[in-house]
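hey so i finally got around to running the thing on that chain from the lab meeting. sorry it took forever, my laptop kept dying and i had to restart like 3 times. anyway pasting the input first so we r on the same page abt which one it is
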Amino acid sequence: MSSNNLIELNDISKKYTLKGYFHNSIREDISNIFKKPQIDSLGTNEFWALKNINLNVKEGECVGLYGPNGSGKTTILKIIASVTYATKGEVTVKGRVAPLIAVGAGFHKDLTGRENIFMNGAIIGMKISEIKDNFDSIIEFAELQKFVDMPIKRYSSGMRVRLGFSIAIHSKAEILLIDEILAVGDKSFRNKCSDKLRELVRSDKTIVMVSHDINRMKEITNRIIYIEKGQFVS
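ok and heres what got predicted. didnt touch it at all, straight out
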């Protein structure tokens, strides 16, 4: 791994089975146990979500992934975050990762915003003392002062994303993964997020982000990669 790279994806491919597909019989299940896995080929009702992806991200770099729905953008973030694993290829990540990939991920719906800050912060590697020191700033940035003691299940999706984003940016993780945060909330909050991301890049935070807003990504990222049907397009 290059000393300047915090993320390296080398010839990464990821296959999935179509939702709702089941083997036809127990006999088929048993026979598959003794078959040699076919990593390079597709089985029945399988498809490539990613195919031969190569990506290097340097420390302090902000990379944008852009493309149509279902093109594999979020799958790349999940592989970097070890939420899912590549079918083939090599993944190297150097540093702590704070992922903001799914709305409400890492939150418990029956706990309050206050309680979820501590739980979610711990999940992404923050120490209790670190969470306490940043607690007021987390709430202030998320603009949830009046709702901090309300159960998360009463939050709108926008409120949950604002809270998750605020926790992530206050962590000391070297790598931040962001999926469509710039599409959530009102214009003023999206602008505030953009300003904060630019500030983080200046402070050498490494960011990989997904967005359908190409113009806003141009304002934030060092480079944008277009992905279609699971492959990078030059």
